[in-house]
Amino acid sequence: MMKITNFFSQLPIRWKITIWSSLVLFILFVTYNSIQYYVMRTWMIDQEERNIQEKMREIQAYLADKPFIVDRTEIIYSSGFLEKVNEANELIRIMDREGNLVLAVATNLPHELLVTPVESENLEHVKVNGKHYLIHRRPVITNGFVGYIEVIRDLKNYERLRGLIFLVTWSAGAGAILLSGVGGMLIARKLLAPISALTDTMKRIKKRGFKERVPQDSNQKDEIADISNVFNEMMNDVETSFQKQKQFVEDASHELRTPISILEGHISLLNRWGKNDPEVLEESLKASQQEVERLKMLVLELLELTRLESDRFEVADEQINPVPVIEELIKKFTLLHPNFTFSFHNKLKKEMTIQMADRHLEQLLIILLDNAVKYSKDSTNVEVSAGQEEGKFFFLIKDYGIGIPKEDLEKIFDRFYRVDKARSREKGGQGLGLSIAQRIVHNYNGSIVAESVEGEWTSIQVIFDEGTSSNA
Questions:
Q1: CA distance 341 to 339
Q2: What are phi and psi for residue 52, nearest 5 degrees?
Q3: How far apart are CA 463 and CA 444, in angstroms?
Q4: Looking at the structure, do residues 292 and 332 belong to the same domain, yes or no?
Q5: In terms of domains, do 455 and 420 share one?
Q6: Are residues 289 and 397 in the same domain?
Q7: What is the secondary structure of 137-181 as a DSSP string?
Q8: Domain stop point among 163, 189, 208
Q9: Residues 336 and 302 in one domain
Q10: CA dihedral 64, 67, 73, 76 (to 10 degrees)
């Protein structure tokens, strides 16, 4: 039994479906055909018994209704009536009380049945020479005779019909089981075709890369189609993640290459002859320190961005009023950049709260205000406003600096992207600030949108949707 179980467990699903479907149909057909055969056989036997009992009552009534004495002679003369009621393959005989044959009428029955005694007084099924007979025996009592009436019927027509029904029933059952096996294979092949396609796609992905997808039929809406859709969507996400990872490694390598090259150049300079020249030594150490600081900030920002994009980022459940946080940050930036004018316009008609941690909102504001200061060019005005739109809280930071080209607006939230590449290194930017800001906003189910006119102004608007803000 264990070997059969192990063998069956190792079969392909296609064969398992075929075997199980055939087995289930076999059990159903055996049960149904057995019940059907039993019911039909019982019904046919019942009909034969009813017919022979009805004929017995008819003969008894014929003999009992005569107005004159019915003796042995009269019974012999009743052979004409018995011949009329006698059917093919049937024997009717009358015997006296001692069992002596008085009269017998038979059609197509063996001679030996004419003298075969029957001991049963009711219905009896007997086999003679392999043939099936139904025998019914009842007493006959008249004013001149006492004896027995026997009606014997050969059930060869019943046996023939029963055999035919048995043959047809089980032949049809065997054919149905065979067809069920073929049908099970076809159904299994049809049902498993999408799974085979999924398996083939996985093999192609393993061999060729993430661009392979499961072919889909737009008209198919079943569970297998859902699996294929989920798999394709998952592979889209995996491919996107892989491309981002690849781009991230390339961008990080590019960003790290410059400070490392600068450090390597200064160290080589010092190693060759600069360590003996105080002026060169001081300049190289100062430049190296700046590059180390830049590397430190780059690593910190990369770690922060990784934390924001991972499951380790904890979204706060607390509700805060954002306006005081904005006002406090503006005060700090006013002290930090006394040459700039920071104006705040509170357009809220009533106090609002948003679901966000104070520190995360502060980090978001610092990134956006710092960018506004860095790229303000000759203008020193930075405008900050807060308001409500369609039940959602928003704040907007606008500077009047170098602006952003229209074709670059969609790229400014990418890692390491900088609009002013020539001046960004002088300003200390790593190109990660807006990526971090976008991730913070998205983690709180908000949205961040940039608008700009090159050479005139840039605005960054942050909106928190209805699910994260409410009226106080």
A1: 7
A2: -70, -35
A3: 10
A4: no
A5: yes
A6: no
A7: EEEEE-SS-EEEEEEEEE-HHHHHHHHHHHHHHHHHHHHHHHHHH
A8: 163
A9: no
A10: -50
Average pLDDT in the chain: 78
Mark out the alpha helices in 209-277 (DSSP H runs).
223-272
Distances (CA, A) of 14 to 227, 299, 314, 374: 18, 54, 47, 66
Tell me the residue range of the domain where 341 lies.
314-471
- Counted domains in the chain: 3
Ramachandran assignment for 445, one of left (phi > 0), alpha (psi -120 to 50 degrees), beta (any other):
left
Q: State the DSSP H helix or E strand holding residue 347, giving kind and residue range, or none if neither.
A: none
User: Helices 223-272 and 278-309 sit at what angle, rounded to 10 degrees?
Assistant: 170
Residues 23 and 153 in one domain: yes
Measured distance CA(213)–CA(52) in Å, rounded: 77
Please tell me the total number of residues recorded for the chain in this structure: 472
* pLDDT tier at 80, thresholds 50, 70, 90: confident
The whole-angstrom separation of Cα 443 and Cα 315 is: 7
Tokens of 142: 């008249």
pLDDT of residue 2: 67
Which two tokens mark 140? 């006959």
Shared domain check, 51 and 150: yes
Mean pLDDT, range 73-86, rounded to an integer: 86
Mean pLDDT check: name the lowest of 44-53, 252-261, 334-343. 252-261
